[in-house]
Sequence to fold (686 residues):
Amino acid sequence: MRRLLWHEKEEVPLIQSTDGIEVEKCNINIVDGKWSPCNKTDDDVRRLIRQVFKKKMLNVECEATETVDDQEPFRSNEDESRSVSDKELLKSFDESDDIDIVNEDPKSESNESGDTVDIHTFISDNRDNHVAVETDLNQMQPDNFKLENMHDSKINNFTKENESDPVNDENINEMTSTIMKSYLQFREKEEDDMLAFCWLWDFAGQRDFYATHQVFLSKHAVFLLVTDSLEFTTAENQGIDFEDSAQYVSFWFDAIHCYWSTTKKGRLDPPIIVVCTNEDQFKEPSEREKRQKKFKENLREVLNKQEKKGHLRNIYFISNTEDSDIVFEEIRKEISSLAMDMEDWGKDCPLKWLLFQQVLLKLKDNNVPISSTKALLKIAKHKDINISEDNEVKQCLQYCHDIGTVVYFDEENLADHVILDPKWLINAFRCLVSDKIDNVIEVSDDWQTLKDTGLLTDSLISRLFRKESELKFDEHKTHLLEVMKRFDIIVNLKNSNALYMPCMIKSCSFSEVQKQFCDGNQPFYKTSWFCLEFKFLPPAFFNHIIAWYIKQYFVSVIIDRDIRSKRNALYRHIGVFDLDSSGCEKLVVCEGPNTIALQVWDLRMSNKTYEGLTVHLFQFVETLRNRYSLHHISYTTTFTCKDGDFAINRKTIEELITKDYMCYEHNTIHVSDDLVKPWNYSEKLK
Ligand SMILES: Nc1nc2c(ncn2[C@@H]2O[C@H](COP(=O)(O)OP(=O)(O)OP(=O)(O)O)[C@@H](O)[C@H]2O)c(=O)[nH]1
Ligand SMILES: [Mg+2]
Fold:
């Protein structure tokens, strides 16, 4: 990422491993795709707003000669025409008044002056305000510096007020007026009109972050997958082995594929560019050629016959330490052109929303990482922004959430706050999930408990949050924990305040877990395995599943005889739950490659059926699909014999229609009905 942002090759060896996620920004010129640094607090929203107001002022002069009647039609069109797309705005301010754009919009036919109706509507709608704004503007211009200072002090006041709700209306009003006024200055260069704003998010590669990355992945992005090799290891690890670069690349393709959509041209979005680094390690051209060939072969194998390969747009072989900027310029251009080719590029957005978003960005830039929703509702209603309905403010916040500007959920326990700085949230996550902790915490019992069992104590949370004391996470602990619960990064045990972090729990093999419950001497009835076999299982999906079971059932307890202590039967890929209070009947929930599998253990040998468990699982997967916008997740129902390995050996209903079948895993005959009966699927075999 740093080379894309013009850092010199000499700086590469000094780069530190990404801890969590790093966020940078730049500008992209929408005409030629060229990138430019974005060091000022300026951004495209600000520019757009300035342009709008500039146009508004020009029109004030024109309107002075028009009659009010002439403008009425625009007023009546208000609702459907209040949206302004970035492109339209940019175009409409082009000196040459692009007629094509105007004509694309049927509403513009009534527009005699040849400008887009959208802009006019905005003007007539705000007629009461804009004269006052103009006056203020004139006053402001000579003394820019003073204004900026005043404006920051207003925001600081807001910060104080916001910390100690109830919010002071007068301060909010004053602050919002001041921020809005500051955008009425239009001393920017013309070429700025052609710039679009671009965020760059650098995701850490370590596994620890896979549970938190989901919060920030989105379909509105171009992805670069950077690796220095693409090799398959022979080690058969359960789950994803992040040391295996082929599995690692496959993992990220899957994670991104969760957000797929098809473009008009029939391609799969979001686009992925694979970048293979360390070309300098191969000195001879023939070596390089060999390496590149092997890399491409392996990539083909990783993506072999899978839908997800449709995301791949290009592969680059580069050296971060030796290549000149020309190589990176090429990648920058490709990113620009892929972005501009995406469906949402230049999508319409109501102008009021842009204004409101500008205040949100300004607050963030002034170190207000989180705000009460109440305060933001007041800002939105300010006359210069004028979003009068609470519902519309919420929609606007939802829009800002979707494009990654804020983190906001209109849901119970979450709706009262809006996180204005996603980076702040990442830092809070990082405090909890990163292994980079000081030695004292590392040797503490609380940390050991977290690593062994996933149990997160309240005192450990406070200690971990204090790693970044200046970010004041402790003050917003309640909301932060609610956000983490929303993503099942942490989860409450049933009927308990104890918090668990499924992503931090250690792994344990299935046979080891089973041994804890059955020593082979007692009768022990096991059902067959009931499996949901996914085309691809999103990385954090099992976390959600296990979190759901944790909330529904009591987690079974294991006695560790060696250390004479109890622990909950929760591991990274396995959870064991008590189905009743006797503890004799247990539900085992497991994750395998692209599979979620259930088995019931019953010490009473009661031979019951468990249809209810399957129905609940189906319903929950459906809920997850909707809740996390993973609409493309699909699965088939399969079965595995009771002592079989569901990771390698599964049967569909269609494969079980014969009365019995040969099980290749056990080299013996199994009765088909034994696989389906415990789950009440016998009818389906007939
Ligand atoms: N020789 C050589 N070294 C490189 C190249 N790219 C990166 N490095 C070095 O490899 C190491 C890792 O680079 P990073 O940029 O931190 O890699 P990363 O993938 O971002 O790693 P995480 O942030 O830990 O996920 C650093 O010491 C870099 O200096 C390259 O093209 N050639
Ligand atoms: Mg990095």
Notes: Residues 208 and 655 are 39 Å apart (CA to CA). The domain at 527-685 is CATH 3.30.310.200 (TATA-Binding Protein).
